[in-house]
Design brief:
The complex is a heterodimer of chains A (461) and B (431).
Chain A: H1 2-7, E1 18-34, E2 37-55, E3 58-64, H2 69-90, E4 103-105, H3 116-133, E5 139-155, E6 159-177, E7 183-193, H4 196-199, H5 207-221, E8 229-235, H6 237-249, H7 254-258, E9 278-281, E10 284-285, E11 288-289, E12 306-310, E13 313-314, H8 321-327, E14 335-336, E15 345-346, E16 350-353, H9 360-365, E17 369-381, E18 386-398, E19 401-405, E20 409-414, H10 415-418, E21 424-425, E22 430-432, E23 436-439, E24 441-444, E25 446-449, E26 452-458
Parallel strand pairs in A: 4-6, 8-17, 16-25
Antiparallel strand pairs in A: 1-2, 1-5, 2-3, 5-6, 6-7, 8-26, 9-12, 9-16, 10-11, 12-13, 14-15, 17-18, 18-19, 18-20, 20-26, 21-26, 22-25, 23-24
Chain B: H1 3-17, E1 22-38, E2 41-59, E3 62-68, H2 73-88, E4 104-110, H3 115-132, E5 136-154, E6 158-177, E7 180-181, E8 185-191, H4 204-213, E9 217-219, E10 223-230, H5 232-246, H6 249-253, E11 274-276, E12 299-303, E13 306-307, H7 314-320, E14 332-334, H8 341-346, E15 350-359, E16 367-379, E17 382-388, E18 391-395, H9 396-399, E19 403-412, E20 417-429
Parallel strand pairs in B: 4-6, 9-17, 10-15
Antiparallel strand pairs in B: 1-2, 1-5, 2-3, 5-6, 6-7, 6-8, 10-20, 11-12, 11-14, 12-13, 15-16, 16-17, 16-18, 18-20, 19-20
The chains are: A alpha+beta (461), B alpha+beta (431).
Chain lengths: 461, 431
Amino acid sequence: MLQDIISKHRGSFAAGASTELRVQRNLQRRVSLQKGNMVGNVRADISGVSARVYQNGLYGFASAAEISDAAVKKALEKATYNAAFLDSRVKLQKGPLPGIQQGTRPADADMTDVPQKTYIDFLQAVDAHIAKTYPDLISRMVGASADSMEKVIATSDGYNAHIIAPRSYIYVFLTAQAKDGSPVELFRAFGGRGTFDTVFTNPESLHAGIAKLHEQLMHKKEGVYAQAGQKDCILGGEMAGMLAHEAVGHTVEADLVLSGSVALTKMDKQVASPLVNMTDFAHTALGETAPLPVYVDDEGTLAQDAVLIENGILKGYMVNREMGARLNRAPQGNARAWSFSDEPLIRMRNTAVLPGTSKLEDMIAAIDDGYYLINSMNGQADMTGEFMFGISMGYEIKKGKLGKALLDTTVSGVAFDMLKTVDMVSDRVSWSSSGFCGKKQPMPVGMGGPELKCRITIGGR
Amino acid sequence: MNKPLETAKKALGMMMAKGADSASAACSLSETNELNVDTGVFSLMRTTLDASLSLILIKNHRRGVVAVNDLSEEAIAKAVEDCLQAAENSPPDEAWALSDIKQEKSFTRGGPADLDKLYQRTRDMVDEIARDYPKVVINQLVVEHRQSRSAYVSSADIQYLSESGLYGLGMSFLAREGEVSSSFSGVDLICDNLDKPFLEADGFRQALKEAQMQIHTVPGKGKLEGSIVFTPSCLGDMLGSILGNFVSDSSLLEETSLWKDKLNQQVADPRLTVSSLPRHPDIVIGQNFTGEGFLAEDYDIIKDGVLRQFMLSLYAANKTGHKRAPNSSPSLVVAPGEDSLKDMIAGIQKGLLVGRFSGGQPGPNGEFSGVAKNAFLIEDGKIGAAVSETMISGNLAKMLNQVRGISKETIRDGSSVLPWLAVDGITISGN
């Protein structure tokens, strides 16, 4: 038991320092079929122990790829040594971290593994369905992917916790040929929190979603290029989630705030339309368990929601213990690490724009010449709040009605300018949680939102 | 005892005993020491001791792959059993294979860590940036030394041993004045010694200087067709998209590559040569051998504008009937041109110098559009104001036939050697 390894070392934490000890296992399972060829069939099990020690304003960290008493002892000693190595040279001479709530949170599930055969059989059934049902495709790729994380955390002055976090997805990529002979592609991820055998019980449950994806692809292959320029647009719910994560969320992470992000001077100022509310949910969102719940973070902080924007006014940053002290804000559970050998960084959890009161059909009817942008293949933003999203699926809106589908394009803008143009917010929220956020380490995150009507710059050809 | 070798041999023996037709095992032990500077201040020293064991097992043309980092007897036995189960439950495919060329070779590069010197070089860099580029704020600077010992063995009597000790640096930064800041910029470096101060690495001072010039920007206006000069770093990203879409395993297996029938045909301007050169003296982190057991060799992907080789694994080569690529690393080297960067820019009437492309992942048709980041206007042959909210769009395949010039200057960052590349006919649009 991982708990047994860690519990006996709590007494050996150095006095006067904040110490975190973590034992962790990451399981990753991948199967992929490219046009029916099984090009990926991989299982990876990564485990080990790490310790982090904070003293005089500096962190020492050490890890070992071994779960044993000796490895725990060595990690604690080396982390203490590393903090002292830096302290002897840098001499920040800061005091201890402000205290946080102490307690214990046990695991609410067991860490279970699923045989590779389960992934393979399910994926082959999905692939066979696509091959049989959609002969008009020129290519297809399906992938099954699951990652599970188990952490046992002991801290000198915060929560001790046992965390188990599995998630499982099926990825479907469909490719058709456009009239000019060029390939046109669409992608969708199915799945969410839980082990593969609980998330996917029947391949037929994906058929409707795949049919919808195929229908959109058929529209897209007859699609047109968007007209470049500033347009009235409706961002789909997943796009709104990406906006919340990429263009606002990152700029209000304290490490980026302290580096000089656009949010540094915007606290308590109007940064968006009064219709816009945004929260980084810890574990419960809008009355339900959030897509990827976090109850205790890797610094031992009991997780709470971080309200970021309220009625268009910037209200919060996301912090860890150390930067929270620098910004005079209490930590809310945003410090997380991906692997046993990673130190906790400030990360988002389930970041979302909150729903409004409008109906999607009324929002479409309110646009004379614009676009409904449904899905994105990727998005990026920087500390100025300038963002870019690649649009993989969307439609023209002409005189209040949906028109032709769009070929791949890009939208861009400056978040705190664009959000001020939001004049309608739909009453439903779409979530996505299949991706990783990249920031020194990968991290599973959830993001979501309602449809937003706004003005945005769209790239054309 | 060489633990990686002993472990790899043990795992290989167990896989063969389970009835594998062919198999390979790669094992490595590593120690990484890392210093972090966050928001301009030293924050963390990190030591990670890691291990890895990667197994490939092929039985009755069925393949399984397992990776673990627990090297205990019990964990190895479980990994072998998992690998067998993964293989036995997969469909047969005769294209799966490993190298059958018997080899035994050892490789070394770099040496042990000098952590005091690493700290001092980092300290000097932070201090010099504060002194010489006072508007620059370091968001995050990570420097590390990674010492590793690895072994690869396969059922074809192949044995490779390697030892390396390399330094790495990655820094993201911006420049700030009052409430206004530039976009993110970044520099990276991999080297096998600390002889030179970090700040003297190719392109570092230029990137810091340009960040300070990018604090105040003018938004792009209107729409025109112009020339783009891609910096080496941005060229590397664009080439990544080009190669991924047109010459990779997936693009050939899915038959979505626009170049699938273009081998030995002109696909780019005759001045363009793109190679994968892991043995190049300026490629510090190249490749010694591939995961399929082949010795890594240099090769040209595009030579004088002609497509010479797809970047295919042995599996994809067997499936498509094309030749396997002689290595499986990027190690990208673009041959320098004859023009100086200054002369190249002097010939441009209207265009942009682009340091980073923030765009949607181009689809298989090669169409791209995105924001020009860390970018400057070029007007009448001169570099002008930094720009923001400016998009560029075009087609990756067509772009390679619209080359205007290739600089004779290159940037060597330890993983690639790339020049500045100028292309015509790109749509530039603003608000």
